[in-house]
Amino acid sequence: MSISTLPDRALDRAYLIPRDTASIEDWNRRRHLDLAAMDAVALDTEAFRVMARLAYEPNANRRAWLIERRDAVHAERQRRAGRAHRADPGPTAIVWDRPRSRPAPRSALNVRKRGGLVAL
Q: By CB distance 3.0 to 4.6 Å, which of 42, 44, 62, 108 could disulfide with 38?
């Protein structure tokens, strides 16, 4: 065993990044579909382990996934607390309390051209 593989092994022992082809559980973890089934203690543990791995991860691709995972854990915590996450505000609808009025007809007096009114 070389010294260069030791950090990766140590990082994998702290938090193993899932592979898509390893199992269905890893596929679900890779897409953060497992977070809704976790209880509060498991979710807190997941957040701690993700941050620990993120602090020492040198690989940019793995760091990107870890940041995505950290944000997904945070969003799940916010959802359980009853607050919407800023990145995912949820479905929104526009409600009009009165019918929209039609725009004023265009005439030579209210048409702007290059910053000024059009002369007749």
A: 42
Q: Where are the domains of the chain?
A: 1-120
Which residue type occupies 41? Answer: V
Q: What is d(CA 88, CA 62) in angstroms, rounded to the nearest whole number?
A: 23
Q: Report how far residue 87's alpha carbon sits from residue 82's, in angstroms, rounded to the nearest whole number.
A: 15
Our CA angle for 95, 100, 102, nearest 5°, is 160
CA–CA gap between residue 105 and residue 111 (Å, rounded): 10
**Pair 15, 29: CB distance under 8 Å:** no
- Taking the C-alpha atoms of residue 6 and residue 48, their distance in angstroms, rounded to an integer, is 22
Q: What's the alpha-carbon Rg for the chain, to the nearest Å?
A: 26
The pair of structure tokens assigned to 41 is: 């203690």
pLDDT tens readout for residues 60-107: 999 999 999 999 999 999 999 886 545 555 555 455 555 566 666 665
CB 17 within 8 A of CB 65: yes
